[in-house]
From TrEMBL:
Organism: Methylorubrum populi (strain ATCC BAA-705 / NCIMB 13946 / BJ001) (Methylobacterium populi)
Keywords tagged on the record: Transferase
SUPFAM superfamilies in alphabetical order: Acyl-CoA N-acyltransferases (Nat)
Keyword Transferase: yes
Residue ranges of coiled coil: none
InterPro entries for this protein: Acyl_CoA_acyltransferase (IPR016181), GNAT_dom (IPR000182)
Name assigned to this protein: GCN5-related N-acetyltransferase
Amino acid sequence: MTRHETNFTNASPFNSLVSVRRHPLDEQASHKLSTRVVAYTPGFEEVARLFERASNDLGTETNLGVIRRIMSNNPASVLAFARREGFDCAAPHAEGIIAWLPLTAAGHTALLNGTFNVQDPDPFHLTAQHEPSTAIYVWAIYAPGLAGGVGIAFDQMSSPLHRHADLYARAASISGRRLITTLGFEPLDTIQPTAPSGLYVFRKPGSPLGRPLYDSYPTPGQHYTVTVVRTHDDLAKVMAIRSAVYIGEQACPFEEEFDGNDFSSTHLIGYAGDEPAASLRVRCFATFAKVERLAVRQEYRRSRLAPLIVKAAHELCRMKGYARVYGHAQKGLVNFWRRAGARPFPGAREFAFSDYDYVEMLAEIEPHPNAIAVGADPYVIIRPEGRWHTTGVLERSGDRSTKRPKEGR
């Protein structure tokens, strides 16, 4: 989605054209941006001129009739940008534009189940001006050289009417995906596995989607969910699942199954409803993470729980900043791990342990744009494993008065 883009997205009447540095929307200082960029509500003639300009750049046409209907319903859904220097309110000349669709609850539901028509939205799915929205679909951005306007527009999308409305968008290309991830959007299907493919979300504070896949248990309406092990009771469930699968079915000796690494690992449990049905553990090394000990109870092996818990593990690794996930795949399960994104790599070795033959495999993943790293909020770093998205007990303790031990004690 740069000025060199050559195709519109199939999901929207026009594309997004803007180039920005890596900077999430909620971290952009709009008060500083406003010293260089002016944002205002344009007239339809200006909008038509800009969209015609965008169409000429991209070699396609825009449905101005749909845009006119949407602007008539809610003029605030389109914002124009111009450089502050030389701006004349009596004769404004827009240089960029952003169009966004505030959605009703019905519109939000339609977006999530794949029935929302982004080319010609149903009026029932859109809020009118001054009505609160349940979600916001970022329809198009055209702001070459005026990326600051996007940050200013985000302020409007975060007004009291839209404070908790998550933002959604689609990427039409690799550059488009780079843009929206730069702005802090993430693939929705990492949070809701049943979400339409290609849909990205920017979650607001207090968002109902504020839980990643590896912390999705329990979620109303979701039958298969996953959570990180945090209690002795959780770890007992993991041991029960692995005992049934590896010791019971594969006759693995106890000391080989429980190999001394369980207290130095992060474990995940997959649930079917409220029934613990799958488990997996992750061990972290300097330059890679290792996914291992995947176990699914026999009665759930035809469900989608196995790929779901592996996907959750990859998301956990992304959040920890890893780009490589290593594993040992049983030779009979190589195709499963291929579908999960792993491949035998050049020089991968085949070997055997506990009476089964294995091959080394590697999955290349993209670290999360907000991966935990030195420089992150120290309160975020001390939150419970896999709960970096929500306030932890230790930061709540920060409201108490501080103490210092006496010297020499």
